[in-house]
Amino acid sequence: MRVKSPVVHDDLSSGRSERGFARTFAALGEIFAFTKGFYLREGIAPEDRFDVDFAVEEIFTNFVKYDPGSSEQVTVALERVGDRLRITIVDPDSAAFDPSAAPVARTDAPLEERTPGGLGIQLTRKLVDGMDYTHSGRTSTVTLTKRLR
Predict the structure, then answer these.
(1) From the centroid of its chain, how far is CA 65?
(2) N or C: which end of the chain has fewer CB within 10 A?
């Protein structure tokens, strides 16, 4: 399997950073190091960091879990736009799945009536202020927005 060079793009003057990560759960440590560096550089308040890291982890792990055969990197981009943080996660080799349209998990139903899955996406939608999805060819793009404190 051919390993592609990582995508690396930082535009410190515009408050944007972008990195490509291997499609593996083991990449989560690298992702969190990347987000931490961005938070420190951009002065993102600690109380916002958990929400963003949870959302990035949820979307990234879904890409890994549901398209494990691909060797394409998943790109994570962070951009501060005024009082908002824009998080863009791009999977260049994936089937269509719109997390913004996923059904609401029935947490009030008895266990035997529930279907597994969906809680992570549901919580992600509560932690961020916006979630958009596009799919073209085999490229899925999830864009999250978070209002910063």
Answers:
(1) 13
(2) N
